[in-house]
Design brief:
Helices cover 90% and strands 0% of the residues. By secondary structure, the chain is mainly α. The N and C termini lie far apart (71 Å).
């Protein structure tokens, strides 16, 4: 096996171990699954009411779109939680760190300019 493949497998297995070890995440996923099951039951009850096909399809499409949005939101929340658990920097954190580095570089440039001006003043006197 190639070394890259071995490293990828080790990374994947360590990530899976961390995720499996996280009981809070598992309980959260269980509660999300329970909520999904309840919503599915409610949806089936709504569909069982006597309606024509167009209304039924429209209602189904609305529910599917709503479910998609909720799933994306929850997936993002879980991903952020996993990033924090695994101590991987999120892209927002990286951008914040970059801006802090830029700010510090500007301060260093200003301090260097001040030091140089003070040195030229002391050399003249």
């Amino acid at each position: 096996m190639k070394a890259k493949t071995l490293i990828e497998l080790l990374t994947l297995s360590s990530n899976l171990y961390i995720i499996a070890k996280d009981n809070d995440l598992l309980s959260h996923l269980g509660s999300v699954a329970e909520k999904g099951k309840n919503k599915l039951n409610d949806f089936v009850e709504d569909l069982s009411e006597g309606e024509d096909d167009k209304q039924l399809i429209r209602k189904f499409m609305d529910k599917a779109h709503q479910a998609k949005e909720e799933l994306e939101k929850r997936m993002e929340e879980v991903a952020v939680a996993i990033y924090r658990k695994m101590r991987i920097a999120h892209s927002n954190e990286l951008e914040e760190l970059k801006s802090q580095i830029d700010d510090l570089n500007k301060r260093i440039a200003i301090a260097t300019a001040r030091i140089q001006s003070l040195e030229t003043k002391t050399i003249k006197t």
